[in-house]
Here is the input.
Amino acid sequence: MDNFLFYSKNNDLSIENIRNSISENSIIGKEILYFQTITSTNTVALELASNNCKEGTVIIADMQTNGKGRLGRKWISPMGKNLYMSIILKPEIPLKDAQILTLFSAISCAHAIKKLHKLNVLIKWPNDLMVNNKKLGGILTEIKNEPKRISFAVIGIGLNINLERKDLPEDIREKATSLKEELGRNVSRTDTMIAILEELERIYNLLLKFGKTFIIGEYLKMSSTIGKDIKVIMNDTNIIGTA
Ligand code: BTN
Here is the structure.
């Protein structure tokens, strides 16, 4: 399944280094599957999870041909520039709390990027990772559920790493950014991925131990939405207020 030839020669994504960074007792990353090209890491993760693969399995790709964003949008996924990954989780949490999985993932990414790259990442409700008011990445959580509980969740993370403004369609050029654009240099996808997996593992364990209150507390500290004037659009009704 791995394509060692491709990534050993000219690819800054070292799956070997990522695998070696996972500690023995980790839930997340025990199994890491790499694809050079994939339709969507989320789509493949959903198939694997339906076939009962291990909790914590991570799917990483160098390029997606059908990357999915929220609300049926397309996620721009050019070869070798960004991180595209999905993680399969099977948390014992009620279905009504499923949204907490997106928040925990967003918080983990934000912490990892802050620690490694010293950038102030904020979370725009519910799933956008923002730097200097521009979108750096996003999270797409897809869930298979039983009547009241989650059977499994696929957390899809897309993070712009070495994407340049010119790689983006004009309509989103002013709204999106990448680590390279923010830092003014190329950024290692391997190091960024390792930092993210580390934080996901740490914060997932805190979620399992202390429950959702802990995650909500962390989210409030990092939210770019709370306290702002907002407009909520629901079917035909617009509600204006303060988040
Ligand atoms: C959004 O902000 O709309 C969510 C974007 C999520 C994109 C990631 S890239 C890896 C994973 N696979 C997908 O097809 N989508 C998610």
